[in-house]
């Protein structure tokens, strides 16, 4: 008999067909995201759950006593209580590698858009304010090429950003991890830095660590003060790696030049968040991996992880801590 699984978010016909070969598939068909109470009821008898964003905690696991695998359609898995999964012998999986280039592209887009004021000046033109002016300084931005980028979290995506920065834009690459990566240092002529040194030297500070207890508010008031006044901060990791109030203050006080943000303390962002009023801040709605090809690859990888576990082969991408 095939194992039963539950899919809590939309997948393509191709992914559904692949899953149907190995599993009985139950699926959320509602217009909006599935409410948690409904999810808890739906998973009562399933062995696999393909999901994203939902908090996978003791309450959810207790509601699904037959569960063997929870497959996240994302690389970040801060929505998992890994300890609770371990205690219940449920495998958690994620989707690394397949989104690296797409997220790195978005990171560069945020760097460029903020430095060259693309969204601000796009609005200016579309608001029909563009008139012949004597002094074009009002349109000036900052150079990206040959500047220094500081990558906090030089992992899979961090390296894809370093690749673009080094070979696309001739940038100098600094990075900070808990441990050094000699191969990356060689490949991108990247220099390892302790955090304060990276913050002091980088023109563009890019946050790309996972959200963990250790990285929660890794950047706060003191760290923004350490950055150059001309620095641009880009966050593509998770909103909570940064103290958002400190970021807002740093921008309001001119301690940094601008910010490009894909992720926020609260998502969707609150309508009265001061970041939304700032000309020097570019905001997008958590779209790091959001292209059709990459989301399809992520969903397929998540499906393959479920099937691998439920057919006894072992997860391709198990999360361990
Ligand atoms: N905005 C979006 O749509 C997306 C966001 N993301 C986010 O990006 C994150 C990174 O993804 P990915 O590159 O695949 O992950 P990796 O695990 O490959 O890289 C993470 C890097 O962060 C470093 N790191 C971890 N903890 C710390 C710490 N305390 N201090 C400094 N560095 C640290 C790690 O190095 P070391 O262990 O040596 O410290 C590692 O090099 C995801 O976890 C997710 O949150 C990912 C995809 C899309
Ligand atoms: O935020 C997205 C992810 O894949 O992590």
Automatic annotation (TrEMBL):
Keyword Translocase appears in the UniProt entry: no
Coiled-coil intervals: none
Keywords (A to Z) from UniProt: Oxidoreductase
Pfam families: 2-Hacid_dh, 2-Hacid_dh_C
Domain of life: Bacteria
D-isomer specific 2-hydroxyacid dehydrogenase NAD-binding domain sequence ranges: 108-288
InterPro entries, sorted: D-isomer_2-hydroxyacid_DH, D-isomer_2_OHA_DH_cat_dom, D-isomer_DH_CS1, D-isomer_DH_NAD-bd, NAD(P)-bd_dom_sf
D-isomer specific 2-hydroxyacid dehydrogenase catalytic domain sequence ranges: 6-319
Family designation: Belongs to the D-isomer specific 2-hydroxyacid dehydrogenase family.
Entry protein name: Bifunctional glyoxylate/hydroxypyruvate reductase B
